[in-house]
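Tokens as discussed.
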């Protein structure tokens, strides 16, 4: 028969077996209502004890507090296993399992993120492997330098993202040239914006001909205003349009680092000049604006100039309005530009339609502006009188004026202006093509040369032969033996000739008159007629005069009256 077993004696034996005389260092949490003992009748011994007492596990062997904060267990995966914590049961009811395998090799361990340096070569190589992109050796070589030139590489989306991710943490590259690397996805534009936000080293970014467009420009513009380290931004030929320019202008106000901005050839019009002018007024750090190749016309130009004038710091040093379709209508704005902007040093107005009153306004500003160093007026339709006005302005300028270069690249200067150029050449340089020759030309074929030149000036530039031979019909109105005074010759041609180029070219008309002046001291207009029609026999005759209907009716009535009388 099995003997009864006392539960308290069993518990005390278990505690003495595992904890000795010190007992269990824990707090009793809860005592169960029932105590169940299982007895082996054959061996007459206790083999299992269940539901005795729950203890808060705080044992001397583990030194852990598992069930209460801050180590309250929610999942078994949160328990860090080690050799010292293999036995968690305070009763040690089950014996230790001894195996010859290191459990650390079979347990999951979190991946340790690699640490990269501030150059980013290893980061670039790892990203190339991850995205399965081709490695570009020039990027690897230039990451440790201050200049990264990637012109015409044709970077795709993957290569773009990898490069921009590496540049986010690079601390060496200061000049980034991405000319002609087109952005083709929205993710690339976002990656570029994030690079601008995090990078604190790059000072110059060149995005010429990257075809960003207005949509991507809005994303990039959001980060331009927050970057205080970027000093120069080149967006030439990026097709951002008025919409992209407005988005960029809104972010230029709070920007405190940008000094140079290039927006040339971006299809800008007068519609974006108000917002761009406000940005110029608010931003006191930008000193260099390039708006060349944009059709801003007179309205947009006036808005920009007024904001430049109202900018109280007057830090604008360089302005480029080349190929902006500026003309006589901008004479007031040009006067303000050359006169009121005191800090202006470089002004480019080439490839416009500046002449007459517009040029007079610029000449007036030249005499008053004390800081202007360089003025470019090349490839404007300047007349000889305009060039003489500029030379007189140089002659009257005070020695204290700082103008050093006057660019008239495509112009021929009259010979009488050579004295002024020689006088000021030690301090001021005039760039021009050459002097107008005032020497008399002589030779056996001089008259034929003038006739050919006359045809070349007035001939229409057309591929059709019919259109080319339209000029010269007015010569049939001239009599074969007709003479005109040399002083009346230009006016005579203005009346009979419809070619505006010939009428404006007064120097050619004077040369033509002097060549065909004979012993009578009059211009032989009949000889000009005969030589022209002989050289160009395909010259069409003028159309017959148009007879009015009233005249036709009168002639018909007269015929009827004559018939009745007969």
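Sequence:
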């Amino acid at each position: 028969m099995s003997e009864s077993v006392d539960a308290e004696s069993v518990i005390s034996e278990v505690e003495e077996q595992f904890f000795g005389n010190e007992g269990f260092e824990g707090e009793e949490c809860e005592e169960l209502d029932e105590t169940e003992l299982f007895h082996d009748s054959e061996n007459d011994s206790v083999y299992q004890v269940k539901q005795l007492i729950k203890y808060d596990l705080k044992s001397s062997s583990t030194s852990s507090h598992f069930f209460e904060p801050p180590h309250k267990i929610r999942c078994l995966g949160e328990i860090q296993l080690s050799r010292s914590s293999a036995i968690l049961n305070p009763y040690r009811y089950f014996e230790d399992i001894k195996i010859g395998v290191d459990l650390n090799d079979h347990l999951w361990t979190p991946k340790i993120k690699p640490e990269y340096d501030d150059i980013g070569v290893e980061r670039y190589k790892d990203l190339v492997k991850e995205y399965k992109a081709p490695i570009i050796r020039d990027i690897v070589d230039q990451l440790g330098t201050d200049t990264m030139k990637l012109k015409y590489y044709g970077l795709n989306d993957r290569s773009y993202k990898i490069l921009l991710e590496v540049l986010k943490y690079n601390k060496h590259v200061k000049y980034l040239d991405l000319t002609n690397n087109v952005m083709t996805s929205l993710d690339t534009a976002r990656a570029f914006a994030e690079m601008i936000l995090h990078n604190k080293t790059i000072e110059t970014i060149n995005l010429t001909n990257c075809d960003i467009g207005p949509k991507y420009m809005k994303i990039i513009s959001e980060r331009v205003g927050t970057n205080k380290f970027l000093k120069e931004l080149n967006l030439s030929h990026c097709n951002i349009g008025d919409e992209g320019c407005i988005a960029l202008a809104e972010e230029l106000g709070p920007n405190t680092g940008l000094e140079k901005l290039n927006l040339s050839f971006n299809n800008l019009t007068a519609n974006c000049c108000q917002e761009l002018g406000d940005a110029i007024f608010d931003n006191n750090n930008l000193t260099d604006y390039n708006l060349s190749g944009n059709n801003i016309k007179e309205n947009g130009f006036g808005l920009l100039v007024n904001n430049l004038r109202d900018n109280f710091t007057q830090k604008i040093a360089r302005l480029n309005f080349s190929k902006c379709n500026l003309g006589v209508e901008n004479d007031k704005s040009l006067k303000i530009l050359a006169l009121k902007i005191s800090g202006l040093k470089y002004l480019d107005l080439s490839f416009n339609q500046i002449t007459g009153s517009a040029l007079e306004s610029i000449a007036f500003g030249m005499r008053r502006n004390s800081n202007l160093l360089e003025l470019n007026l090349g490839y404007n339709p300047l007349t000889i009188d305009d060039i003489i006005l500029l030379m007189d302005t140089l002659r009257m300028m005070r020695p204290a004026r700082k103008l050093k270069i006057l660019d008239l690249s495509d112009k021929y200067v009259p010979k009488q202006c050579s004295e002024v150029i020689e006088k000021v050449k030690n301090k001021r340089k005039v760039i021009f093509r050459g002097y107008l020759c005032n020497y008399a030309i002589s030779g056996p074929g001089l008259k034929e040369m003038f006739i050919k030149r006359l045809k070349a000036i007035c001939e229409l530039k057309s591929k059709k032969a019919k259109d080319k031979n339209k000029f010269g019909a007015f010569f049939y109105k001239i009599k074969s033996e007709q003479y005109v005074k040399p002083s009346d010759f230009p006016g005579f041609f203005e009346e009979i000739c419809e070619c505006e180029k010939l009428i404006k070219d007064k120097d050619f008309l004077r040369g033509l008159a002097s060549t065909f002046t004979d012993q009578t001291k009059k211009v032989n207009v009949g000889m000009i007629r005969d030589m022209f029609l002989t050289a160009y026999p395909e010259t069409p005759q003028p159309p017959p005069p148009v007879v009015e209907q009233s005249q036709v009716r009168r002639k018909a009535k007269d015929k009827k009256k004559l018939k009745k009388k007969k």
